[in-house]
Structures
1.
Amino acid sequence: MFIIVGQAFLWTPTYAASLGALNKHLLPHGSAIMNTIQQLVGAAGIAIAFSVTTATKTALVAGGESIRPAMARGAQHSYLVAFGMVVVGLLAALMMPRKSPLNGMPIAAH
């Protein structure tokens, strides 16, 4: 639940601020870029979660703990890392600019 709430706090203002700064003819490009970034970040988040879980489990099993409790603690560590990411996302969302930084100036498209 915290992860979903954190994503809402991050992505909604990010989309609004970034697409709001673009001229109408650049909106499709900006939307495509934002969707691509969202997919890449989602994939990276899953990779980080599995990496934290596996690294914690491996270290605990090497220390003599049985596999099931080691996996549970690995999952706990993974959720703690995800919660930290949610906090960072919340702080980033709160620091997003409230006005367009371009003040209506046209952007050169290449």
2.
Amino acid sequence: MTTLVTGGTGLIGARLAEKLLARGERVVLFDLAPAEWRIRHLRVAGGDRLHVVRGDVTALAEVLDAVRGGGVSAIVHLAYVLGAESNDRPELATRVNILGTAHVLEAARLGGVERVLLASSIAVYGADGEYRPEQLPLGEDAPLYVARGLPIYGAGKVYLEHLGAHYAARYGLTVAGLRPSIVYGWGRERGASAFAGELVDRAAAGEPATVGFGDARVSLVYVDDVAEQFLALLTAPPARFARRRFFNTGGDACTVRELVDAVRRLVPGARIEVTSAGEPDVAGLATRLTDRALEAELGVRRSFTPLETGLRAHIEMARRRGGGAP
């Protein structure tokens, strides 16, 4: 089996590639700007089973060439313009997130790819306070209000879920995906979780860190758990997606202060300054979510929970890789 991962040298893509290579599979990492520092260890481990292709999802021909040239049987689509940047650059976000997803699905159709997995987001939901108490924690059938601070990004995710369902119904593709909480792990540079990754990377390296919105609540999920969840979607029988295609990853809910306190327990002497303006959440993202459907329908449970379990793995990875990302 050969899996093409768009945005493949990003945080989730690189970790997923590592797990696929460990299973003896072939991987094509398709990325506009490959982060060699994140995948250099994979080139040794993967040998000729790993191929890195520089390409742009906004160019259908480039995606299709990568599909046909690599004998691809599945695609995991992770190439997106993330939250705050989507607000700042809406035209770019629309081209990459919407048109890019359409190109991935179209390349799969034209290239005979059997399965496409898409990364949605908890940004499709509203903040916790927009729901009745009995609706919490949020399952996949909750109303999709879209996170108030991420309107372009969240609305784009709602659209791509419908687009994926359309390609499945009209062309017979197996399409599924995840709605990740804030993903953290070593080397995260962009997105809503950049603050979490930076403060852990800096603490592990003995460097000072500063983080805002200390009173905000967040839902955090470790990158290895997300990679394992994508693996489960890659191998699940298509019939498992008859009821739903997109699943919450789930996550550990805490305030940013509680996150910092956990890091301090694991890294005694860590120098982390916390400020706050009383924010209740980060960009209106939901914090109380359940991954019961993923466990019930695919049999996969998160391993890096409670929070300190994932943070400990993050810190160990940061130290093995020489501290923070370059």
3.
Amino acid sequence: MHWRVISRLSGILLMLYSVSFLPSIGVALLYDDGQLGVFATSLIITLVLGWILWLPNRRQQSELHVREGFLVVSLFWGLAGTIGALPFILGLHLGITDGVFESISGFTTTGITVIIGLDQLPASILYHRQQINWLGGAGVVLLMVAIMPLLGVGGMQLYRAEVPGVAKEEKLTPRIAQTARVLWAIYVALTAACALGYWLAGMNLFDAIGHAYATIATGGFSTHDASFGYWNNPLLESIGIFFMLAAGVNFAIHFRAWRQISPTPYTKDPETRAFGLIFLFSMFFIAGSLYWAGTYTDGWQALRHSAFQVASILTNTGFGTATFGEWPLHIPLVLVAISYIGGCAGSTAGGMKVLRVMLLAKLGLRQLFQLAHPQAVTVVKLGNKPVSEDALYSVWGFYVLYIVTALLLTAGMMSTGLDLESAFGAVTAAINNLGPGLGETASNFSTLTPFAKWLGIIAMLVGRLEVFTILILFTPAYWRH
């Protein structure tokens, strides 16, 4: 393990990350909210810490291997989460646990909060929350990959460790830095379009930018305690649904559609089609259930709230116009189930990803077919392309680790005194990067014990970095030379 190379790279990442405090400083100056010193201090601490890590190792130029890439990504997410907590600790006087929890929730685009009274927070603190959501959406490390080659640091190993999804080895362009820049250009363009839509539909400019950050990141942080329910505006909700679903689609598909100036890539991609069908089926099923249960006596209102919540939960954004945990009958269970599916691979959404769920379903059907026809040789295909056995084993291994980790964390949550519903809801919200939970954690996590919050932090990181990146660090084989 090249520790000095890792230290140098971590230092560069932190020094680059310190720049992210500048917009918050600008907001503090613009609104004169008394937080200028908080963000200036946070910037200086981050810059100095990065400089300390970089300076003694600045001449270390050894090649970074995939093994070190996993460690750098995990370390940086931990460091970024801790550094991002500084404004919460210094400005809002939150404890270390609550500050780190809030920050990690933002960076992992989970959207869980321990803060009550968002409407009264200083504008710069609110902006900081929304910005860390946005930076975490496409991956802080992926942003750095787009910049670091200019500083003489290769990025393929970080890209492999950071980018979520089954097809992470696929590059859109020949050079990895160019790929990262293409993805971020699409990300920024969608954010700008979303902010403009929100602003024209009735949000003020500050709220429009903040909610566009959280929408495209599928992060779910809001500047108001009532989230989207604050406006009670069907047009705003429709814009939110469109952009949440857009953020839940593989960004490689967006790139191909943009390059071809055609919607064909969306209709031809089997995962995107499955994603759309899951959304439509879930929306109509839950709308019918809400109407049948009498939650909404107006069919239009049932469809309106169903569409928004399904889009929010399926993409693991976590915005709300209603508390779905309080909806009757089977509806919360169905929404929790689709949160485990999540969005498409290569999107900003959480969950296991539609592509993996499709392959798991095909594996199950193949097994049933082979039980009936033992001598048959069958190949799992995605569209017209056969899927290798190695990829299928990887998907199956991911699924097992994901579910076992969720069960272990649920047991840990219950050991802190939570009932089964609240513990399961908390872990589901955290590991799927969803936001709202069930029971005691339906709207806020402030009542959890410090130990439960640290379990939540672990779950959020495991979910955001897609299990393997974190869990591989705990295997003895990883540390052997």
